[in-house]
Prior knowledge:
Elements: H1 4-14, E1 21-37, E2 40-58, E3 61-67, H2 72-84, H3 117-132, E4 138-156, E5 161-179, E6 182-188, E7 191-192, H4 204-219, E8 222-223, E9 225-233, H5 240-247, H6 252-255, E10 277-280, E11 301-306, E12 309-310, H7 317-323, E13 331-332, E14 341-342, E15 346-349, H8 356-361, E16 365-377, E17 383-395, E18 398-404, E19 407-411, H9 412-418, E20 419-422, E21 427-435, E22 438-446, E23 449-457, E24 460-461
Parallel strand pairs: 8-18, 9-16, 9-24, 15-22
Antiparallel strand pairs: 1-2, 1-4, 2-3, 4-5, 5-6, 5-7, 9-23, 10-11, 10-15, 11-12, 13-14, 16-17, 17-18, 17-19, 19-23, 20-23, 21-22
Amino acid sequence: MLNKSIIEDILYAALSSGGDFAEVFIEDNFTTEISTVGGNIEKGMSGRDYGVGIRIFNGLNSIYAYTNDLSKDNLIKITKKASKAIKENPKNIIINFDKVVIPNLHEHKLAPSKIALSRKLELMERATSAAKSYDDIISQVTVNYLDQEQNVLVANTEGVFVEDKRVRTRMLINVAAEDLGQMETGYVGPGALMGLEFYDTIDIEEYGREAARIAKTMLYADYCPAGNMPVVVDNGFGGLMFHEACGHSLEATSVAKGVSVFANKMGEKIASEVVTLIDDGSMTNHWGSLGVDDEGNKTQRNVLIEKGILKGYLIDKLNGRRMNMKATGSGRRQSYRFSPTSRMTNTYIDNGESSKEEIIANTEYGLFAKYINAGSVNPATGDFNFSLSEAYLIKNGKIYKPVKGATLIGNGSKILKDVDMVGNNLKIGQGYCFSTSGAIFIGAGQPTIRVKSMTVGGREEA
């Protein structure tokens, strides 16, 4: 991607004015995006993004520069400019590139760039047709297809010199159902850190029908009652609730600055004993996985909470300096235009001992949240809110009827302590996370869980 001698020159130039650490991040990224509405192509884009990011530390200070002009003269020029911003006495640091290159653990068979456009459109048409034919009330089907081949190289003055190839594909299916002037939508978005062989492992028509089913169900649903009640959250992307409500507050980005509700609580009981929270970027071929993170560290399984006890944080290199702790393979960025910081990968509540059926049967009255749509959190306070794309009332230990317009409102610290049942049907969904280092791919998951009391927003009092 860049000649090793040029990388070496950049790193020496980076330390020329007193920095004590320097890093080069090189990215060569190929992306294809296609959108269809009703089976007709709405837009299509295919492109390449190629650039270099250069980061320099001096103690707890850092500076980051990036460019898509990869000429040696320009790279050395901007590096020296950045280096002058971290002024101190120059250090005599020996650079060693002899570290073993980590093999790519997330293999792919069908590189998207080698697959004809007609094949990708055929997959989209199959999803569209399945959704359209589900019911006459289906008024519109929008399908967005994405694939990406991202090649990165990370080198730094501590001897890291590693490459990672990340091949991803995903299809987002959004279906609208309309009747008597009312409209509701359903959405699914399967994806993986795989090539086009991913679509041989799933039934894309079934996903199309599932999106249509959600839209139809919500169209004829009553409005959700408001109030405090037990909430059962189904397995899969329901884990987004813990990604938002707890995960962001466990990232060193906020912990190191002391603005997280979980700062300085290592070893303390912060959750119910049935809660074990894990972040694992090494899970084979999962949407949020990487071979190495964007600082060149091998990804790993990080136990954040174990049986209610806070065991760890997600730590990047710079915040690790601030916390005097090692990086955990959690340094991530959207592209070379962003400086990395601590971010989640695949974050999930681990399996418990109850079945989904037992959890529902033990809930006299409450809300069953089948699909969480979106949410937000304030890491400093842990306060969050989520909207639900599919939900049901539970009555007498059984699913009673669908309801729409439901929101979940609460606090991350409280919800962790209020989880009183955890299922044994772990599933991880796919999504995106937007934060200080840009938009990144994440997995979020859990088994079915029950929170003994949550504030549910709706249109009427329960």
